[in-house]
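Memo to structure team: turn this sequence into structure tokens by end of day. - J.P.
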Amino acid sequence: MSARPMPTQETESSAVKQFIAAARQLHADEPDAGKRWQKMAPLLAELLEAPSVKAQSEQWPDCDQGGLSAPEGGQRAQNLLLYEDPDHGFVINGLVKAPGTRTSIHDHAHNWTLYGVLDGSETIERYERLDDGSKPDYAEVRKTENVQVGPGKIDLVGPWQIHAEQSGVERTVAIIVRAEKPGGFLQGRYDPETSRYWQGYGPTQIPFNFE
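Reply from structure team:
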């Protein structure tokens, strides 16, 4: 049996292009959004397994996440914009977080999201909303899940699902695939200690070559 070739720029590009081609085909073939995003998860899993993609991510810059936790103003969080599909609108984001970085508790509004850990570890928190949403600037939420995950783990976040992530003791890298580029619409933010609710725009998109 011949030895497996070392990853090259060509194989890296091939892994990315194969993912994009398969995702485009799935968007064309599956009209049901829920079923489509469940089927997208195995495609992302293959991309996360490509050694060349992980090697490339070692050169990705850290992304500021401080903006997510500020109710008023403040700098917005950042994502690397790796790809935006010209026909179906889905995007591939890269996210690099320093050790111990925690997002605010938030939702993604109407956006479907696949969050895949490429390197490092994270703690994923899930929450449920207890009130009916009738009171302005108010939301009661309760944590329902607190799970530590490592490379290869994919979290499917549906519309309006409330969650947060915290990186572990080392640099954490994620590849995020979203139905729509964030940043142009408001997303919910939650504070369980005060029951405060507010909205803010999603992460600033920083174009970055992925191919």
